């Protein structure tokens, strides 16, 4: 039995034992110790690694049937808000955010951070799992909807503004996550990106880094996005931005036709050790 098959078998056994439900109940508790929360994030990533549809379905079933789902998405939002606030204000406020959301200590004391949250969200939707793609955009049963695609794009804007090796690596993961959000294609999520700031961010990146470096991250998600018609409230503006983006994109990667993953890329020279 190969390593991948063995991992899938173990994932399926844990799934049958109710591991996704146990983890989601942990994530949705009113008060949870940060070490337990962090360990749960790591285990959830391992359970979902490889795009196990059975595990994805179990997480989705909990999220659409539980009365505590709103708390889970609020905690995800707190990760994004805290990361952005730390970049914009230059202070570490993530411990405070965790306390506000019911987590007893700052997750910074372990290796779990916003990059792990982005990876978890990517795995939630991997393989164009349409139901979860819709859920990360719109939680029908929640009193307050939290659009995860919009949170990712807002984070990306700050990552571009506050350049560093660490932020560059998070940016790569953010592109991978958005790619899974729009795969299929999921037209509604593509419209969300079109009506938001993603196209402006992509144009900014291509203008600033016309060859190599960050431009290497763009072909997959932009190529996938450009193949779908833009619709929605900002249709005219989106078409204009999309046209500009297409022109720039074709000069850099004229032969790209399929989405790609960016996690294998090496860092640009400016961020080399």
Structure description:
The chain is mostly helical. It is built from 14 helices and no strands. Helix 2 packs antiparallel against helix 3 (34-48) and helix 7 (114-125) packs parallel to helix 10. It is globular, with a radius of gyration of 19 Å. The chain starts with a helix and ends in a 21-residue tail after the last helix. Residues 94-100, 104-110, 229-234 and 254-273 have low confidence and may be disordered.
Task: Write out key terms for the chains shown.
single chain; 14 helices; mainly alpha; about 270 residues; about 65% helix
At a glance:
This protein has 273 residues and is mostly helical. Helices cover 65% and strands 0% of the residues.
> How would you sum up the major sheet?
none
| Discrete helix count | 14
Helix/strand order: HHHHHHHHHHHHHH
Globally, the shape reads globular
DSSP strand (E) fraction? under 5%
The unreliable regions are 94-100, 104-110, 229-234, 254-273
| Cα separation of the termini | 39 Å
Helix content percent band? 55-70%
If you compute it from the alpha carbons, what radius of gyration comes out, rounded to the nearest whole angstrom? 19 Å
Look at the helices and sheets and give the structural class.
Answer: mainly alpha
Mean pLDDT: 78
SS elements, strand count: 0
Q: SSE layout and pairings?
A:
Layout: H1 3-16, H2 19-27, H3 34-48, H4 53-65, H5 69-89, H6 94-100, H7 114-125, H8 130-137, H9 148-161, H10 165-182, H11 187-195, H12 198-208, H13 219-226, H14 235-252
Helix pairs in contact: 2-3, 3-7, 5-9, 7-10, 9-10, 10-13, 12-14
């Amino acid at each position: 039995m190969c390593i991948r098959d063995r991992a899938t078998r173990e994932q399926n056994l844990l799934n049958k034992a109710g591991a996704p439900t146990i983890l989601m109940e942990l994530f949705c508790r009113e008060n949870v110790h940060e070490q337990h929360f962090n360990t749960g994030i790591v285990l959830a990533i391992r359970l979902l690694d490889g795009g196990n549809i059975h595990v994805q379905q179990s997480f989705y079933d909990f999220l659409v049937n539980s009365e505590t789902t709103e708390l889970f998405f609020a905690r995800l939002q707190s990760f994004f808000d805290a990361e952005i606030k730390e970049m914009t204000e230059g202070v570490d406020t993530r411990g405070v955010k965790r306390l506000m959301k019911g987590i007893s200590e700052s997750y910074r004391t372990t290796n779990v951070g916003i990059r792990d949250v982005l990876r978890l969200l990517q795995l939630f939707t991997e393989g164009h799992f349409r139901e979860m793609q819709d859920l990360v955009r719109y939680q029908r049963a929640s009193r307050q909807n939290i659009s995860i695609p919009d949170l990712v794009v807002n984070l990306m804007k700050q990552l571009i503004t506050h350049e560093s090796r660490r932020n560059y690596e998070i940016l790569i993961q953010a592109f991978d996550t958005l790619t899974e959000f729009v795969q299929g294609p999921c037209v509604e999520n593509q419209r969300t990106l079109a009506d938001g700031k993603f196209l402006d961010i992509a144009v900014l990146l291509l203008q600033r880094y016309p060859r190599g470096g960050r431009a290497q991250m763009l072909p997959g998600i932009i190529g996938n996005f450009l193949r779908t018609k833009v619709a929605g409230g900002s249709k005219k503006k989106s078409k204009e931005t999309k046209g500009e983006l297409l022109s720039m994109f074709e000069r850099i990667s004229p032969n790209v036709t399929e989405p790609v993953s960016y996690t294998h890329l090496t860092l640009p020279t400016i961020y080399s050790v």
